[in-house]
């Protein structure tokens, strides 16, 4: 490749970094101004521009435009500055981006597949430029973060997840495919907006929806082979678990909101057990989940798997997890309990049944959980009195406000710490800054309990091992690995996740654990015997090195 093509191909463009000799050799003379810049200089300039940029949307535009022009600069900057850039391309900014998608000045990226298109999906997939794809992130955008149904505007999520696959998980961006299955949108304000980019129809459901999903899964496997990893993302509650159950034993797929979140949730809990002052066994804990959807049921199911591994019966393990949904506490015999919720519907005394519809405070008083996990999308639902109540019978209450984006978090880090005199072990789905309580001389550091700690490394392990399926035990292995990477320094400031700066290394460790699990289960189509963490780390995509 040379000349104009070299400059206009994002993967090869090195912009003002081309040296005079390279410019002469590649017919670039005259196509670039005379100045020469180093990568370091350009990263610093980018960071300056981002810091001066006024809103999350303008920063998102800067970054997505850069990505479409110069992948080396984009991923080099991202990999070297993950704590700064992640919130700009992922949560919380990606929520703003999806809510304003049709007004953004960014190049379109990914494939939108409308259910109304009569062309076979298999043929449409041929329009994607890459012949080989390792990972597909697909959404029907019915539940974008905690923001609801955003229809085709939800593309920011598959795109953002795949940027993390490359920036944190070392998968070559050329081998990633973001997909929106456009089956309509049930949010009138989105659908009826005159600039809406998707199908302006109510959501298609039932057998037509299922047939479309089947067609997509078949087309993806036919085009990219049985080892292509398909990640379901931000499907609504009525479909998420159902689709996972439909495909998980047939294809190489997982649901990130159920299983990825489970991995990060369990890892946070395991780390919390190591924070000074907390009882050291999972068996001693009682969990109350606010929200009984994909994320909550996913986390609880993996906690159950971890407890069963410790020798607890599955039934007893489930009894350690209680759920509260929009109708109150779930218990055996309550009305409106779906099969997934039924698994965690326990016998409840008459007193507890009486408390069930009264709200979270009364439920917390009655159950006295050691851990309160928020996956409800309801900002402020962990109110001051609830947090204080958690602190009244726990030395170190575990309080995870995992709903995204920040505007949907059940409470802030500051609230969790302030109302427990700094005793809360807090984590949140979107980032919060460290908190210094009055009169203290050290910060408390909230960990980011986000599945971004899990899916990049998990996907990398699946790709490297050629695993044909993605069983739950891979998420157990990922959670164990993630938790073990939290060091004493982090635990001392109540942080239950490792430093975000080390996400590439974390992903290498998780990938190794996943490869070993694939081998243990006989699922690996590739030989993993020669892989260790160091080898995996060296194979991961970094701009200019890119062995993956
Ligand atoms: N940190 C992370 O890594 C992740 C965070 N999340 C976040 O978690 C949140 C939930 O996601 P997900 O589980 O997939 O969503 P779902 O739509 O599957 O589930 C939402 C749940 O919240 C419940 N809920 C809604 N309103 C209330 C209320 N007022 N009180 C109690 N419960 C309520 C719903 O109740 P009902 O069943 O009665 O309708 C439902 O059970 C989102 O904000 C998402 O961004 C999700 C995945 C990963
Ligand atoms: C993080 C994530 O996957 C979500 O909030 O949906
Ligand atoms: Mg999600």
Explained architecture:
- The protein is of the alpha/beta class.
- The chain folds into 3 domains: 3-81, Hemocyanin, N-terminal domain, CATH 1.20.1370; 93-251, Malic enzyme, N-terminal domain (Rossmann fold); 260-452, Rossmann fold, CATH 3.40.50.720.
- It is 44% helix and 9% strand.
- The chain has 25 helices and 12 strands.
- The protein has a 7-stranded mixed β-sheet, sandwiched between helices. The chain has a 5-stranded parallel β-sheet with strand order 1-3-2-4-5, with helices on both faces.
- The longest helix is centred in the middle third of the chain and has 19 residues, at 206-224.
- The chain starts with a helix and ends in a 9-residue tail after the last helix.
- The mean pLDDT is 97.
- The chain binds NADPH dihydro-nicotinamide-adenine-dinucleotide phosphate (NDP), pyruvic acid and magnesium ion.
Considering the chains and any ligands shown, give keywords for the structure.
Rossmann fold; binds pyruvic acid; binds magnesium ion; 548 residues; Hemocyanin, N-terminal domain; globular; alpha/beta; binds NADPH dihydro-nicotinamide-adenine-dinucleotide phosphate; 25 helices; seven-stranded mixed beta sheet; five-stranded parallel beta sheet; 3 domains
